[in-house]
UniProtKB/TrEMBL annotation:
Protein name per UniProt: AB hydrolase-1 domain-containing protein
Ranges where the AB hydrolase-1 domain occurs: 25-258
Top-level taxon in the UniProt lineage: Bacteria
Segments forming a coiled coil: none
Source species of the chain: Thermobifida cellulosilytica TB100
Length: 270
């Protein structure tokens, strides 16, 4: 494990692949998740000669919990800082859920540092509900019931196959929810994140993109329609993954990893 040192804290990450000349890939998990979410995809990319950095979000996993800000823009800035730390790219950004929003933000802000996007279960706009939904979330995430409710919600995002290593991955997530400081940071991430700034910047995203969406993703009433909306916004390719929910790269690595590898090769190695 390594750390990216920032002004108000550290971001933890792992580096897969030992070739310093390998093209850079940065993988960013979703809200509430941790870097082991990429336990299947990162080794596959590294085996093909890529240098793969897999991060934790602010306040998640082994990252610090004392940051002033959380959300898409802060995470996107962290991603860009990591790309520069590791040689300046341009890098392929692979983001899941909120991590996908951060990757899109980064691509709009610094197209010179981003050569491609893989957006997995992406949230590039806010879910319907507005103020009422935010008030409900505030109530749901209060202690003492908040950690259990959030953990249960994250668990239901796997409606398909139970992936290998799932028990250990879920244990790492649960440990974060049980930690006072870490849960406060995770709760702030949930409550302070709005995808509106990312939505506004989508016309500036010029990097080639692949959207990977689980056919049974519970976060969307119609996952295929959401993937089509993103396709129309940024000209992305779309892969709909059967027997998968919000984490198709975990539930169906047999389908997702080959598609990502093929996309990575087509978008070049920097």
């Amino acid at each position: 494990m390594r750390f990216l040192n920032l002004r108000d804290g550290r971001i933890s990450y792992e580096l897969h692949g030992d070739d310093p000349a390998g093209a850079l890939v940065v993988c960013v998990p979703g809200m509430g998740s941790v870097r082991s979410s990429f336990r299947f995809l990162a080794p596959e990319l590294a085996a093909r000669g890529y240098r793969v950095a897999v991060t934790d979000l602010r306040g998640h996993g082994d990252s610090d919990t004392a940051f002033d800000t959380y959300g898409d823009e802060a995470t996107g800035a962290d991603v860009l800082a990591l790309v520069e730390e590791l040689g300046g790219g341009p890098a392929l950004l692979v983001g899941n859920s909120m991590g996908a929003a951060a990757a899109a933000w980064a691509a709009a802000q610094r197209p010179d540092l981003v050569r491609g996007l893989v957006l997995i279960g992406p949230f590039l706009r806010d879910a319907p509900g507005g103020t009422a939904l935010r008030l409900l979330l505030r109530l749901m995430l209060l202690r003492p019931w908040g950690p259990a409710l959030l953990g249960a919600y994250l668990g239901r995002l796997y409606p398909g196959r139970t992936p290998e290593g799932h028990t250990e991955h879920r244990a790492a997530i649960t440990a974060g929810l049980r930690s006072g400081d870490r849960y406060r940071a995770i709760r702030r991430t949930v409550l302070e994140t709005t995808h509106a700034p990312v939505t506004a910047l989508l016309p500036k995203v010029s990097a080639p993109a692949l959207v990977v969406m689980g056919e049974a993703d519970p976060d969307w009433k119609d996952p295929a329609a959401e993937a089509a909306w993103i396709r129309d916004q940024i000209g992305a390719e779309v892969l709909m993954v059967p027997e998968a929910g919000h984490y198709p790269h975990e539930e169906r690595p047999d389908l997702v990893a080959p598609a990502v590898l093929e996309f990575a090769e087509r978008t070049g190695r920097g």
